[in-house]
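Team,

Forwarding the record for the chain on the shared tracking sheet. I've put the sequence and predicted structure together so nobody has to dig through attachments.
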Amino acid sequence: MGATEKVVNLYKPSTWKEKGLKWTIGLFIVTFFLLTIVLMLYWSNEPEQFDVNNNAKYTADKLGVKVVNGFTTTATLSHLVETLLDKSGGFTENDRMPPGVLLDNMPNWEFGVLVQARDMALALRNDFSRSQSQSTEDQDLVNAATKLHTDSQLWILPPAESQYRESVKSLNKYLKRLADTREGNAQFYSRADNLVDWLQLVKKRLGSLSQRLSASVGKEQLNIDLAGDAEAKQSTPSASSRYIKTSWFKIDDVFYQARGQTWALIHLLKAIEKDFRPILKKKNAMVSLRQIIRELEGTQQAMWSPIILNGKGFGFVTNHSLVMASYISRANAALIDLETLLQQG
């Protein structure tokens, strides 16, 4: 009997160690899982809107210069890119480890902001900073636009974040030269034709978003690719009509890309209002611009649903994509009116 008790006692410590190890591993897994969920929720918070005029003043103070024409628009672009890099969780689109790799909505929001940032960087490089088509490109703006077009999925050698950070540095160099009245080797030309060129690109972006959002319920669409020109041709023939529907797996992606693009556009249009004020007043177009901003602000209302609902058009369940498309379509219609005023007003 004593021998049996001795054998049992010999195995008790080992049993307790095994149980303790299992409890430790289990506790670590649960803690890691809960921490991942908390970080995912925290990192999914969209950044708040900022005041473009206050941001311009802050940037000018930081650079030791004064706010001049074009400063607000460029400083707004710079801050948009900085927001992508410095918000909670940083830039997550190229993450390869949890919790970033598990996120879905925030990476699409980031890509939406990045699309508008790239478009504005190109507008600065090609239009706003040049007096005419034969003028020389500003090298800092060339660098900024090039770095911003780095693949957003790139995570190593070099990571996308480092390239976007370099873009911000180039924009700040341009800002410092822009405000230097002694050199005069950097300019921002607030002209109606320059603004129209950028607005035409914005119009196409919004039109594309509206179509992709509306396709959440599926629709039969006639082919109007060559409408309006009897002599127009295309590379290969197309069907007279086609059924368009956004995949169920892509609906939330399109929604948050649209939300990111409109968030960025709100700030860029407010900056344009400041830098192009004389032109807008002369064309009596200030109200039109503000109407566009107001429509876009409707896209930023708080989301109370944990998922993007996709009910039928007049069904029992709401359709968030159609609501977003409605705001964007109205903004696009006002954008067309603004473009007409600038060209003909």
